[in-house]
Amino acid sequence: MQMMGVAWRRWRSEIKAKSYNQNIPLDELVSIRPVPQKLTPEVWEALCHYWNTNGFQEKGRKPTCIEIINISRRSKKRGDAPVDDEVIQVEALLDEAVRHRLQNNPEGTQPTEVHEDTFRL
């Protein structure tokens, strides 16, 4: 069963690597003919919708530097409370920088999209 699970995950990742592009609109991806890897059109459409959902994209992306700082400077024993006062100041400065950068970017830009640029400032 473990070998089947490994083979299944490998096959799914190969399909995604070869056939799925997150920059192509979902309508175009679903309408690709012939359907990749001999999948049925229904399965291909379901996979495209699944890969396109925010939950999956969140799981599959790497954390930004700001997110790493926020996670690593919290105490699990004290309910995710900041470790010290310096952490509170740094988080406030980073949050302010992200808000400032978001104001200068087009509407609908997500905070994680500007984290790396903000962190480099």
* Count of beta strands: 2
- Envelope shape: elongated
Percent helix: 55-70%
- The residue ranges in which pLDDT falls below 50 over 5 or more consecutive positions are none
Main-sheet strand order equals: 1-2
Structural class: mainly alpha
Order of helices and strands: HHHHHEEHH
Strand content: under 5%
Distance between the termini: 49 Å
Region (Disordered): 102-121
Protein name: Transposase
Biased composition (Polar residues): 103-112
Description:
With 121 residues, the protein is mostly helical. It has 2 domains: 2-60; 65-120, no CATH class. The chain is built from 7 helices and 2 strands. The protein has helices at residues 2-19, 26-30, 41-52, 54-60, 65-72, 85-104, 111-120, and strands spanning 74-75, 81-82. A two-stranded antiparallel sheet has the order 1-2.
Q: Which key features would you list for this structure?
A:
121 residues, two-stranded antiparallel ribbon, 7 helices, mainly alpha, elongated, 66% helix, 2 domains
